[in-house]
Amino acid sequence: MRLRLEPSDELMHPLEEATNFNESMYFNVYDPGERIGGFLRLGNRANEGYAEMTTCLYLPDGRVAFTYHRPEITHNEAFDAGGMRFEVVEPFEHLRASYQGKICILERPLEMADPRRAFTENPWADCAVKLEYRGLSPMLGGEPVNDDGTPITQKADEGFARGHYEQHVGARGTMRVGDDEWVVDGVGLRDHSWGPRFWQSPWWYRWLTGNFGDDGGFVLSIVTRRDGARHVGGVWLADGVYEPLVDIQIDTEWRTDDTYHDRIHAVARTKDAEHVIDGKVLSLIPLRNRRTTPDGEQLVTRISEGMTEWRDDDGRVGYGLSEYLDQIVDGQPVGATA
To answer: Which of 16, 134, 161, 305 has its Cβ near the most Cβ atoms within 10 Å?
Structure first.
C-alpha cells in the first residue's frame, strides 16, 4: 500500500455510492498580533442531501463567534454552500476561503454543549470572513492505493477519511463580526478529506496542530477505535521540511465536571530527535454530533475545539488548535481515562 496525491486531488472527487460519502475542506488560522483566530469547515454529504458548514472565530476578548448549518445540496461539484465558499487558485500553493452570513456570539462558549439553547439565548450578528491561504510546507497525506495504483476499499460504516491530506499554511485577509473588523495576518493548518465518513467511527482521537511562525510547527495525531486499536501519526515541521513522528505521548489536564481539556503536555519523537510541547487552551467550544446506528444504538460524539498557545522546549511560542473527539458514555468522554 502507498499514498497517492496529485494536484488534481485539490479539486472535487467523484460522488461515490456510499450514503455517507463526505468530501470536506478545513482551514484554521491564528494571528498572535490581533489575538484572533478560528476555523472554517465545509463538508459535502450530497447523498444525504446536505453539507456540514461550520464557522468558528475565537475573538480577542474571549468570546467565540460560532455558527453551524446543514444547507441543502444535491451534488459534489464545488465547496459552495450556506454562505461558505472555498476556491483552489493554484494547487498546493494558493487557496481562498470565505464565509458571509449570520453568526452567534457566545460570551460563555461552553454553552454550545446545548446548541439549541445556546443559539436561542445568545445574540447574532452579521459576519464576513475573507482569507487568502498560501502553502508553507510540503503536503502530508494522500489517498491509500494498492501497489498497482488501484484504490483501497473500505467498509462505509467504518469510514472517516479514506483520502486525507494536511498542510501548514499562512493566511491573510479580514474577519468581521458585527461592527468589529480585524485585518488578519497569521498562520495555521488546512486539510482536505474524501470518502465515507461517520463521526462515530473513531472511539476517540486527539489532533493537535501548531505553528511557530512561517517555518516551524507540528501535527500530532492519536486515533483510537472501539476495539482498542490505535494509530499514532504526525509530523514535525522545521525549516520547511516535514520529519515524520515515530512516537507520541499526550498527557491532559482536565477542567470542570464536564471534562474539557485545559492543559496539554506532549512528547513527539522523530527518528533523530525528541520534542516536548506544552499547551494552554485559551478558549474552547464543544461541538456535538449524534447518530443512531442500524442496530438502534444511540451515539453522541463530542468534538472539543480549543484555540491553544503552545511552548516547545526551545522556548518558542506558537498557536494552533487542539481538537479532542470522544464518544460520550454515561456523560463522560471515553478518552479521558484512556
So the answer is: 305
pLDDT tens per residue, range 167-179: 999 999 999 999 9
Q: Sign of the C-alpha dihedral, residues 67, 72, 77, 81?
A: negative
Q: How far is CA 179 from CA 64, 103, 176, 225, in A?
A: 15, 13, 7, 45
Alpha-carbon distances, residue 56 vs 1, 165, 186, 192, 224 (angstroms): 36, 21, 16, 18, 26
DSSP structure class, residue 272: S
Residues 6+ apart with CB under 8 A from 228: none
Residue after which a domain boundary falls, among 163, 198, 233: 198
Greatest CA separation found in the chain? 56
Give residue 253's pLDDT band: very low, low, confident or very high (50, 70, 90).
very high
Whether the model pTM is above 0.90: yes
Q: Report the domain count for the chain.
A: 2
145 lies in some domain: yes
Q: What are the pLDDT digits (tens) for 98-147?
A: 999 999 999 999 999 999 999 999 999 999 999 999 999 999 999 988 87
Containing structural domain, residue 312: 200-338
Tell me, yes or no, whether 207 and 179 share the same domain: no
